[in-house]
Amino acid sequence: MRMITRQDQPDKIMQLAGKYPHGVALIVLGGPSAAGWEELRDKIQPDVILGANGVNSMIQDLDFWICSENMNYTSRLAASGDARGIEYMEMFHREAGAKIKLVSHRSWNLLKDTSNCISIRRIGYEPDRVPEDFSYRVYGDGFMSGWVYENFKILRLRQRVGNAGCQLLHMASILGCTEIFTIGFDMLFRAADHHHAYDYPIYKVDRFRNPANFVKYKGQDTQEIWIACARFLATMEPFFKRAGIRWVDHSDGLLKLMGLRCANDLWTDQQPARD
Prior knowledge:
Elements: H1 10-14, E1 24-28, H2 37-44, E2 48-52, E3 64-67, H3 72-79, H4 83-93, E4 100-104, E5 117-120, E6 122-123, E7 143-144, E8 148-149, E9 159-160, H5 164-174, E10 179-183, E11 214-217, E12 220-223, H6 224-242, E13 246-249, H7 254-257
Parallel strand pairs: 1-2, 1-10, 2-3, 3-4, 4-5, 6-7, 10-13
Antiparallel strand pairs: 8-9, 11-12
Helix pairs in contact: 3-4
């Protein structure tokens, strides 16, 4: 049987395992609550700061930055003059001093300089079928990304429900952190024309999203794909506990509305056993 060579770099990821033993991580994502990231940083004094996508327009010199999506289609849109595509590619190519960039192996061909980059990939499982031996401390076959969402009445393309925030939770765990704080994980629409702590993107009915994607959850405007992401994270919370990780979300968004422990101060003081 012919062996297929992996295009990501698992050895480079695992060389970083335990870099911050018992450390505190701050993960900054793009939701509106990320505007308060500096206040949270000053409060928790993190050992490592990780950010995703357009957060590199807000924070200089991140320790880790991730873009886990395949950007080739977006690159072609940008080349044709598509305004949304241009915004995304400006984000992808922005130089903001990130010490290490985690970039999808599917977007590796678009990088202008790979000297501080690691090629990564995402892996997912069907709901409630996470392998019993899964550990957030190990990269394994790739960053945890949930199942594939393919209801074409909702989205016009197949998409994994786990977003970049999910992958950064996995990375912070590999780094050996025992406390992980997230902010900007809102996954709610706070305004009709401003969905992030920065100016883009604006989510609306377009070539990717059908009207049925835009729904209300407990009176708050959101997307079906975001609800699916929160459900995936709910299935994964026990694996954080098993690895001895305390995850606290400061976003006050969908994770709180859906009752996840991380967003509702439901973690106990007792440290769980480490795997």
